[in-house]
Specification:
Layout (H helix, E strand, L loop, with lengths): L23 H4 L1 H13 L3 E7 L5 E7 L15 E2 L4 H14 L18 E2 L2 E2 L5 H6 L25 H9 L16 H14 L3 H10 L25 E3 L5 E3 L9 H4 L2 E2 L1 H12 L6 H7 L3 E2 L8 E2 L4 E4 L5 E9 L2 E8 L4 E6 L6 H15 L2
Antiparallel strand pairs: 1-2, 1-14, 3-8, 4-5, 6-7, 9-10, 10-11, 11-12, 12-13, 13-14
Helix pairs in contact: 2-11, 3-6, 3-7, 3-10, 5-6
InterPro entries: AmpC-like (IPR050491), Beta-lactam-related (IPR001466), Beta-lactam/transpept-like (IPR012338)
Protein name: D-alanyl-D-alanine carboxypeptidase
GO molecular function: carboxypeptidase activity
């Protein structure tokens, strides 16, 4: 049985750092932090991609690519990026807003008639903006998937199945009443993109975002594809005993528009930098994206905009980005306006708040250099 969001002791693994000459850790604090979290938190592997204020980009690794070997993590290897997918979807929606094909404050009912109906749920009273910002009150379908069912990892889910899981439960709150993260919002947004454009969400993301941002190692896996295409570290999830189970190959359809994509850390870094630099959205839509509400339970001081999170850094700057967690991988990526950009990935599931905090500290260190 795979372990899910429960505290566990994770066995520490030997640390291998690619191309790390003597003294490198003192000269590069990000490399030092990567080595530390692998040694202290027991991640099988860790990756980072950083572009500093000086414009210099570098890709770093620690740990091993596969347990039971001494093979180093491939530099800038592909990983599953989970909920970072949401920012890609949000960019597509806001491009459609700029094209006058979607309105942010229009009810979902306008685009998807009679789709959202349930106990306290009515698409006539939920707006597109509320979906993007997680203020819709829609219940989170991932709470009703069985996290201990390993068969779930290879099962294919239709998007409508995911939505039906959510709609079988009452609304979490009235639309607009508060903020609460729900993957269901982005399943609905994926369906909305497909209805408005008449094309698959994967195709719209590829043409409108991936190609425009020149992301050469990023993709939305097609139906049935369970492998990661290019060089990649293996991903693991701890079972009830704390043993790491290899979950590299899985069917990501249960994440769909809320979390299905694959990318490298450098592509994630480039994506958020391009977004913040105004290369993917017109000025008006980027401004809408950056209108935030307090995101309670997230990083201290964080705000959630339209598919993007703002959060303060230890050096006083403000970063904009997102994170993602899916069996096998956790990723965090962000950029500072006119400044650094970075992405960090680890190759297992966190089981404690402290592990999450230390991964975030690597990102903070990278963005504060």
């Amino acid at each position: 049985m795979l372990r899910h969001a429960a505290a566990a002791s994770i066995t520490a693994f030997a640390v291998l750092v690619s191309a790390a000459p003597a003294g490198a850790t003192t000269r590069d604090p990000v490399r030092h932090e990567l080595r530390r979290i692998v040694a202290e938190d027991g991640w099988p592997g860790a990756l980072a991609s950083v572009k500093g204020r000086d414009g210099r980009a570098r890709d770093l690794t620690a740990g091993v690519a596969e347990l039971g070997t001494r093979r180093p993590v491939p530099v800038d290897g592909q990983v599953r990026i989970g909920s970072n997918t949401k920012t890609f979807v949000a960019v597509v929606i806001l491009q459609l807003v700029a094209e006058n094909k979607v309105r942010l404050d229009e009810p979902v009912e306008t685009y998807l008639p009679r789709l959202l109906r349930g106990d306290g749920i009515d698409g006539r009273h939920i707006t597109v903006r509320q979906l993007l910002q997680h203020t819709s009150g829609l219940p989170n379908y991932t709470e009703y998937l069985d996290p201990d069912d390993s068969a779930q990892l290879t099962r294919y889910y239709e998007p409508r199945e995911l939505l039906d899981l959510a709609l079988a439960h009452p609304a979490a709150f009235a639309p607009g009443a508060k903020w609460a993260y729900s993957n269901t919002n982005y399943v609905v947004l994926g369906l909305l993109v497909q209805k408005v454009t008449g094309r698959p969400i994967a195709e719209e993301i590829t043409n409108r975002v991936i190609h425009r941002a020149k992301l050469r190692h990023t993709y939305f896996p097609p139906v049935g594809e369970q492998v990661i295409r290019e060089r990649h570290p293996h991903g693991y999830a701890p079972d009830d005993t704390g043993k790491q189970i290899d979950v590299t190959d899985l069917d990501p359809s249960w994440g769909w528009a809320a979390g299905q994509m694959v990318a490298t850390p450098s592509d994630l870094r480039k994506f958020f930098a391009a977004l913040l630099d105004g290369k993917l959205l017109p000025t008006a839509q980027l401004a809408e994206m950056r209108r935030t509400v307090p995101a309670e339970g997230s990083v201290a001081g964080a705000g959630y905009g339209l598919g993007v999170i703002s959060f303060p850094l230890s050096c006083g700057r403000v970063a904009w980005g997102h994170g993602g967690s899916i069996p096998g991988y956790q990723t965090r990526a962000a950029a500072v306006e006119g400044g650094p950009a970075a992405a960090v990935a680890v190759t297992s599931q966190p089981t404690t708040d402290e592990q999450n905090e230390r991964v975030f500290k690597v990102l903070d260190t990278a963005l504060c250099q």
